Amino acid sequence: MNYRHHFHAGNFADVMKHALLVRLVRALQRKPKGFLYLDTHAGRGAYDLERAAQGDALARAPEWPAGIGRLWTLADLPEVLGEYVDLIRRHDRAHGNLTAEPRFYPGSPLLVQMLARPVDRLALCELHPAECDALLTAMPLRARVTVQALDGYIAPRAQLPPPERRALVLIDPPFEAQDEFARIAAALSEGVERLPAGVFAIWYPLTERARVDAFADRLRALALPPTAVFELAVAGENAGLKMRGCGLVVVNPPWQFEAEVMPALHALAGLLAQGPGAAAVCHWLVPER
C-alpha cells in the first residue's frame, strides 16, 4: 500500500468526516458508562500541513486550503462545526504553530483522544509499518489507548464485543484496492453480528456513482439495524473532479443525529463548494423502527 494521507489532510473530506465523528463521540458520552472507540484504519494520527505540498517526487497543490482553511477564521459557525474547528485550533496551538494559517492537523485518533473521558477506551489499528510507527509517536501514552499493527478488516473480529458492551467503530480505509467496498461490507457484517447495538461509521469517497450505489445495495442485503447515509458533494457530477464529495454511513445513529448534523452539512456545502451542484443530503438505507 502506498497511501499517505498527509497529502489530503485537512481537505473537505476530512472536515466532513471529523465534524461528524466529534458529534458521534459526544452522543455516546451522553451516558456515563464508557465505550470503546475502534479505528480500523487509523493512519499516522497527526499531520503537518506543510508536507501537503510535497509529493513523493513532485510538488503538488495542498488540499487543506479548500477544507479546514476555509473555516479557520470564521466566527458564528453552527455548533457542530464550531466545536470541530476549536479542537483543530487547540491541537495546532499545542504543537507550536503561531502563524495565521493552520499547520498541524489531528487525525481521527487524536481527535477522539482529545474528547475521551477516563472511562472511554481507544483501540487503534494501522497495518502500514511506517504509518503505525508514526501513530505510536503521535499518540500520548495513556493506559486506555492501544495501537496495533493490524489489518483493520479483522479488527471487529478481534475487538468486539468489548467489555464495555458499547462501541463506536470507524472504518475509514484508503480505497486503493478494487475490492474495498466488499471488504468493508464483510467487516461490517461481522461487527454488527458481534455487537448489534454498536455504532459503526464508514467513510467513502464520491467518485463513481455506480460503485457507491452498488455498495448501498450490498449493505441493504446485510439486514442491518437502522442505518443512515450522509453525503457532502462540493460539486455536481459533471464537475470533472476526481473526488467530488464523500459520504459517511452510520449504523445505529444516535437519537436525533440527523437533525443535529444536517444544518452543519448544509452549511459546509456552501462553504466548501468547488463548483455548481454542491449539496448535502441524508437518506436512510434502513429506516428507524
List the helices and strands and how they pair.
Elements: H1 12-28, E1 36-39, E2 46-48, H2 68-71, H3 79-94, E3 104-106, H4 108-115, E4 121-125, H5 129-138, E5 145-148, H6 155-159, E6 167-171, H7 180-194, E7 199-206, H8 209-220, E8 227-233, E9 245-251, H9 257-271, E10 279-286
Parallel strand pairs: 1-4, 1-6, 4-5, 6-7
Antiparallel strand pairs: 2-3, 7-9, 8-9, 8-10
Helix pairs in contact: 1-3, 1-4, 1-9
List the defining traits of the structure above.
alpha/beta; Rossmann fold; 9 helices; 19% strand
Write structural notes for this entry.
The longest helix has 17 residues, at 12-28. With 289 residues, the protein is α/β, with parallel strands linked by helices. It is built from 9 helices and 10 strands. The strands form 2 sheets. The chain has an 8-stranded mixed beta sheet, sandwiched between helices. Strands 2-3 form a two-stranded antiparallel sheet. It has one domain (5-286): Vaccinia Virus protein VP39 (Rossmann fold). Helix 7 (180-194) links the parallel strand 6 (167-171) and strand 7 (199-206).
